[in-house]
Amino acid sequence: RDRLKQKSASVLTTPTMSAIEHRLWPEIEKITMEQLHYARLGVGAGGWQLFAEDGDMRMYRREEEADGLVVDPLKACHVVKGVTGHEVCEIFFSPEYRTGWEATLEDMIVVEKVSKDTLIFLQTHKRIWPASQRDALFWSHMRRVSDDQDPDAHDLWIVCNHSTEHPDYPPNTGKCVRVYLTVCLVCQTFIDPPKDEDEIKRENITCKITYCSVVNPGGWAPASVLRAVYKREYPKFLKRFTSFCIDQCKAKPITF
Ligand code: 18C
CB count, 10 Å around CB of 15? Predict the structure, then answer.
């Protein structure tokens, strides 16, 4: 583990230079760090109610409304064997994998490539009757963060997605109502040390995942339908996404 920790210890937080120079950078930095803090708070305090459980997966929500719209925050934890936090975050972040795991997606384009670790996406999602179809325009930023809270863990990886604006893609002009989201996926890798100098294999690796999400539906949506969609779609997403990660990684060399 020390060997591996050393490999990444030299990199503290590693946003790329071109991201730092971008107009959105102060917001990306602030929201990403806030979301990391929020994800690490756990679910002991704050009125979280467990609503779904399956193996190591636990999903919690808080019932909240804003201007009469359901905006229930969600927090989920999962433990996945055989993949690293870096690999899981890479799959969540990269456009090439999205259609492989994002079941609610109808269409996706990359509107702007800010840097190799920061992209702006426009997505349209499947319509749920009787509500209008939704789209989402958001920046997505991925980075490694050195873990000062848990000396036993490998570094943390985070992907943060947050709604933004773009002059070429104004909201609510076509058939879609725009949703507003703040989402983060935080991953920590734990290594069960192999005997002696044996090389680390996938069976020695465990990834702890925390996923947090707040989605404002942006316009009218019946609360009961929306809460039923949450209850069905979030567990489906996390199970599908994590098995997709295992499947993608199993035959590949490990990326710490
Ligand atoms: O985080 C996730 N995905 C990321 C990459 O895509 C990214 C995207 C977030 C999408 C936010 C949700 C957009 C609206 C979805 C509409 C629902 C379609 C369901 C179709 C079912 C056939 O961060 C993983 C996201 C997992 C999403 C789970 C569902 C969330 C539901 C949110 C509902 C919002 C309003 C819907 C209005 C209709 C209400 C009746």
Answer: 19
